[in-house]
Amino acid sequence: MAASIALPKGDGVSARFSYRFFPHYPRHDLKQVPQPIEIVVATDGSGQFKSVQDAIMSVPSGSPTKPVVIHIKPGIYKELIYIQREKRFFHLIGEDPEKTILTFDLHANMIGPNGKSITTFRTPSTVIDADDVTAENITFENSAGPVGQALAIRVDGDRVVFRHCRFLGWQDTVLLNRGRQYFEDCYIAGHVDFIFGAATAWFERCHIHCRKSGYLTAASTYDYQPFGFVFSHCRITGEAEAKTYLGRPWRDFANVTYLNTEMSGVVRPEGWQNWNLPEREKTARYAEFNSTGPGANPRGRVSWSHQLVKLQAKAITITKVLGGADGWDPLAK
Q: Which of 56, 123, 166, 275 could form a disulfide bond with 187, CB atoms 3.0-4.6 angstroms apart?
């Protein structure tokens, strides 16, 4: 039987080598779930950044297992925000939508470097070009005032979610240009075409406020898309002298539906307008179900809009509208 060898303890030196023994430590679990990339933005300098855009640019992209979470402290951030196409899985999280404000003041009548008006599509205060972006507890604002087209936000990304956000503007407040978006418990204010575009979007329990007379939506839905904008359990209000249409068709096959929506007297009895193009009455897809309040007037609506029956309305669900080929469910955890 071999003699037992007493192993040295602590530090020491032998004729052949130096040795040092370390205490036992737990082994790392290589399968541990990656942690989000957390960034804090604060105007007072208490975070890593004072600028929201600088924070966005500091990380190339996120992933489903390692999203980029940007916590935005209360403050007014007057800057142009751009989340470019490559920056997927970014989450912008504020603490209070009334105190966390992303704002700028471009409008379409401003003169650009070429001596011409900059036009509508160069006015957004915030542009979201990436997929899989979420925003919570933030105000997106264009502060130019009632001076023409002035976008608070433009969204081109797919699977984009807004919760407890405010969108403030006048004409063309929110452009949903393409993709699918989900809005929950949001507040949107404007007066002319202030929710517009070709995207497919669901608005759940949102408050839509008309600041002056005009048009609430201007959808440009493509003919091959079964849905455009769907408002579910929303509330429509307005200033004392304001009157609004529920929508007018920016393009021929505009698609807008209101489900179980409370409408104040700001909504005109006829409900919808044809953009002064009678031929669009044959193609626009406008519908309501169970509208309530002084602005609900099923018998007074234009003849080319539709009042859905219960079975038709029941078939219009979040998964049916937003699911798409990938089965996206914005309510899934």
A: 166
Partnered with residue 267 across adjacent β-strands are 244
In a domain, 5, yes or no: no
Secondary structure (3-state) at 203 = strand
List, in sequence order, every residue forming a beta bridge with 214; answer none if it has no partner: 244
Tell how far CA 58 is from the center of its chain. 22
111: which 2 tokens? 């003169």
CATH number of the domain at 287, please: 2.160.20.10
State how far Cα 258 lies from the chain centre.
Answer: 19
**Does the annotation count 172 as an active-site position?**
yes
Which residue(s) pair with 263 in the sheet?
A: 236
Q: Indicate the SS3 state at residue 57.
A: helix
Residue corresponding to tokens 């640019």? 57
Query: Do residues 59 and 84 make contact, with C-beta atoms less than 8 angstroms apart?
Result: no
- Closest C-alpha to 219, from 275, 266, 167, 264: 275
Q: What local confidence, expressed as pLDDT, does residue 32 receive?
A: 63
Exactly one of 54, 132, 172, 329 is catalytic; which is it?
172
**Buried b / exposed e across 82-111, counting CB within 10 Å, b at 16+?**
bbeeebbbbbbbbeebeebbbbbebbbebe
In this prediction the pTM is: 0.90
Longest dimension (CA), the chain: 104
Residues 316 and 210 in one domain: yes
Instruction: For the chain, give the number of residues.
Output: 333
Q: What is the pLDDT of residues 187-196, one digit of tens each?
A: 999 999 999 9
Residue of 193, 223, 252, 326 marked catalytic: 193
Q: What is the residue range of 65's domain?
A: 35-178
Residue 270 and residue 319 share a domain: yes
Kindly report, residue by residue over 275-310, the tens digit of the pLDDT.
999 999 999 999 999 999 999 999 999 999 999 999
Q: Which amino acid is present at 104? A: F
193 a catalytic residue:
yes
